[in-house]
Specification:
The protein is of the alpha/beta class. It is built from 8 helices and 14 strands. It has 2 domains: 128 residues, 3-Layer(aba) Sandwich (Rossmann fold); 70 residues, Arc Repressor Mutant, subunit A. It binds calcium ion.
Length: 237
């Protein structure tokens, strides 16, 4: 399990790093938001972090602003905010900004561990088991996709591509991230093969109320179809 710890208090960072490493968890520790950005970018080729533990008062900015940016492209990685800001309005703001949990300093380290475990379990379930978007339900464990209750026939690669698009829908999935994620699942594909799977998926999802948009040179995004019918401008690759 890989954790990202963003904390500029050297004592806390050291204690947590040692404690978690002793449990067999890999910890990437950052003291600044810029470093955290780099760590998240680098993580895409090794798979996402199981959890982010985020301090709010950091030397180069506010952790909540960073969290809001993260949530633009990643809704799934659980984030636990660890902060001295203990007002109710602070907690509410933290949770509204996309945090999954909030723990106020000073804290009992056993409680933090328990929360980390609960969040990573939930994160795995969120990632692995069930994704919904519009009328689409994607069931990771069963390898099934349903559109409005009707099973959809997909090849394994199409299934994985759809899962990746659903994880980030309605946001962009860079083409590179798609290819890397498939490679991680031992489904090696090249650039043009990725385009082929997307275009097949697009056909199969024609009646689903969703559309896969191609952002030329960037990647793909799964969106809800606008009211009144299919978007035609990007129906083809
Ligand atoms: Ca701090």
């Amino acid at each position: 399990m890989r954790l990202l710890l963003i904390e500029d208090d050297a004592l806390i960072a050291r204690e947590l790093g040692l404690r978690w490493q002793a449990r067999g968890w890999a910890v990437s520790a950052c003291t600044r938001l810029a470093e955290a950005d780099a760590a998240v970018q680098a993580a895409t080729s090794e798979g996402p972090y199981a959890l982010v533990v985020l301090d709010l008062g950091l030397p180069d900015g506010d952790g909540l602003d960073w969290l809001a940016r993260l949530r633009q492209r990643d809704r799934l990685t659980p984030v636990l905010v660890l902060t001295a800001r203990d007002g109710v309005s602070d907690r509410v703001l933290g949770l509204r900004s996309g945090a999954d949990d909030y723990l106020v300093k000073p804290f009992a380290v056993e409680e933090l561990d328990a929360r980390v475990e609960a969040l990573t379990r939930r994160g795995e379930a969120r990632r692995g088991a069930l994704l919904h978007f519009g009328r689409i339900t994607w069931m990771g464990e069963q390898g099934q996709v349903y559109v409005g209750g009707q099973a959809l026939e997909l090849s394994p690669r199409e299934f994985e591509v759809l899962g990746l698009l659903l994880q980030r829908a309605p946001h962009l999935v860079p083409k590179r991230a798609l290819i890397d994620a498939l490679a991680q699942r031992n489904l090696e594909v090249g650039d043009s093969a990725a385009e082929l799977y997307v275009s097949r998926l697009r056909r199969k999802l024609a009646a689903s109320g969703t559309v896969i948009r191609t952002m030329r040179g960037f990647g793909y995004m799964l969106n809800l179809e606008p009211e009144g019918g299919a978007a035609s401008e990007d129906a083809d690759d």
